[in-house]
Specification:
Helix content: 40-55%
Number of helices: 16
Bound molecules: nicotinamide-adenine-dinucleotide
Number of strands: 21
Structural class: alpha/beta
Length: 500
């Protein structure tokens, strides 16, 4: 996949930096650019804290995490307001998608950690005299690196589960949302004041790299595919486990028998909410030829009523990261130059830092808006012959995060053939609010899994323990030199009978 021609300047590695409201330019706070020495000190402290946290045991950890959940819930307005100001997203989006889903996940992780991770018996197979057990021990200190688009929900998909599994966490939030990251660690200290079990260190990319190189025992990263690969290489050198959650180019498939009212509502919300800055946001829509014109007419008329802004009546906010605005504009300009047709919006949609909805058709397959993640409120709609063509178009991409299917009858059959980590049927973007479902993708979207039991296990390393239930006489002990010929023959016979 081609790299964007827009290259950011080298970020500072010392001093301080400011977090500002991207919609209004108001200053939110000034934060240190932490370096390698700060990171090393944080990880050293975290290592001691982790042992203390693990020694608390499952019940006490659960009690503390549920107390933190209650603290987040009671401070929901304050926290949502901070996310709203730091990202520019509307207050309701901050409340619903960031804070409420975070509370759901924290609650779930706290309540399911012991059952999922503590020692449990498994079948010993034909070695019936053995007792076989698996338990999951924490990795130790986990480094979490987060993005800015969901500055609470996204990193907490790692932090909640890592803490519930008994790890200490050092968190490096995005340079665009440091205040939310700092608030998180400060709130955790209200319920765990004894040890720095969760710390937030702020800065740019080099601060994140210092975290990766600091001697942590696992990295959980959410961000772009480009940075995910660079961190993966560093983790590979250190032989530490790594969970990358990267970008996406999610498609919605609208089949001939779709409920078009729901399909339009879902596609539009999934493509435009949060200003299109969702990893699993809708960027491509493939519509069956029989319903294409009607779907497009309805989508166009609904999209025309939406508007970006910072005022309370706006449907969504600004582009949070200034450079992202230029990238989205580049995708739009290149698509037009390549022959795309504008159905909604146009050049007038671009009112830095806001972008009103843009819907395009006829974008050539090799245009950047089809090939790369746009991460803005732009959607490309394409007419397809049938569901088969929609599936192969959707699958013909390096990214494979999520997808949505609208069909009254064929949803499960289409979902089964999509090459993505997640699919929703007659709905969009709902997986994130279901804590028991794993979240993650494939290909350039990464291979990490957060949330659910898989998400808990990702923050523990399995330990297999086996021991005899009773002592065997030497002639029957297969794992000794004293095993008899009769025992060998008996084992041959059992194997033959069982595995014919
Ligand atoms: P980004 O990759 O630019 O930055 C992510 C984080 O990595 C930031 O904290 C940044 O400071 C840090 N970083 C940058 N360079 C680094 C380096 N060399 N070493 C260590 N850390 C480094 O991504 P972004 O712009 O913050 O976020 C947007 C991207 O995140 C989009 O691609 C989006 O799709 C993706 N995302 C994915 C998911 C998911 O669950 N799959 C969720 C949200 C966002």
């Amino acid at each position: 996949m081609a790299e964007s021609p827009l290259t950011p300047p080298s970020p500072p590695t010392t001093g301080t930096f400011e977090s500002v409201n991207p919609g209004t330019g108001d200053l939110i706070g000034t934060f240190p650019v932490h370096g390698a020495a700060d990171m090393a000190a944080a990880v050293d402290a975290a290592r001691i804290a982790q042992q203390w946290w693990w020694d608390l045991g499952w019940d006490e950890r659960k009690r503390r995490l549920l107390a933190w959940r209650s603290y987040l819930r009671t401070h929901m307005s304050e926290l949502a307001d901070l996310v709203h100001r730091e990202t520019g997203k509307p207050m309701w989006d901050a409340e619903a998608v960031d804070v409420i889903t975070t509370v759901l996940h924290l609650d779930w992780a706290a309540k399911h950690a012991e059952r999922t991770l503590s020692s449990h018996q498994v079948s010993p197979g034909i070695l019936v005299h053995l007792r076989a057990e698996i338990s999951y021990e924490p990795h130790g200190v986990v480094g979490v690196i987060g993005p800015w688009n969901y500055p609470l929900f996204t990193p907490m998909g790692s932090i909640s589960y890592a803490l519930a599994a008994g790890n200490a966490v050092v968190f490096k939030p995005s340079e665009f949302t440091p205040a939310t990251g700092v608030w998180l660690a400060e709130s955790f200290r209200k319920v765990v004041p004894e040890q720095p079990v969760l710390q937030t260190l702020t800065g740019y990319g080099p601060t994140g790299q210092a975290l990766v190189e600091s001697g942590v025992d696992k990295i959980s990263f959410t961000g772009s595919a480009k940075v995910a690969k660079a961190i993966g290489a560093l983790c590979g050198e250190r032989m530490i486990p790594y969970s990358p959650e990267a970008g996406g180019k999610d498609a919605v498939i609208v089949d001939r028998d779709a409920d078009l009212t729901r399909a339009v509502r879902g596609a539009l919300w999934g493509g435009v909410m949060n200003s299109g800055q969702s990893c699993a946001g809708v960027e491509r829509v493939f519509v069956h030829q029989d319903v294409y014109e009607e779907f497009l007419d309805r989508l166009v008329s609904s999209a025309r009523s939406l508007r970006a802004g910072s005022d309370p009546d706006a449907h969504y906010g600004p582009i949070t990261r200034p450079a992202q605005y230029d990238l989205v504009k580049h995708h739009f300009d290149q698509a037009l130059a390549a022959g795309a047709t504008i159905r909604v919006g146009g050049r007038e949609s671009f009112r830095r830092p806001f972008i009103d909805p843009v819907i395009l058709t006829d974008a050539p397959d090799d245009s950047v808006i089809v090939q790369e993640e746009t991460f803005g409120p732009l959607m490309v709609v394409e007419k397809v012959r049938d569901a088969d063509e929609a599936i192969s178009e959707s699958n013909a991409h390096d990214y494979g995060l999520g997808a949505a299917v609208y069909s009254r009858k064929n949803g499960p059959a289409i979902a089964a053939r999509l090459r993505t980590g997640m699919v929703s049927i007659n709905a969009v973007l709902v997986q994130g609010a279901v804590p028991s479902l794993p979240w993650g993708g494939l290909g350039h979207s990464g291979y990490g899994r957060i949330h659910g039991e898989e998400g808990l296990r990702a923050f523990g390393r399995s330990k297999s323990i086996v021991h005899p239930r009773f002592g065997l006489p030497a002639f029957a002990d297969l794992y000794s030199f004293e095993v008899s010929e009769q025992t060998k023959s008996a084992l041959r016979w059992v194997t033959k009978m069982l595995f014919t």
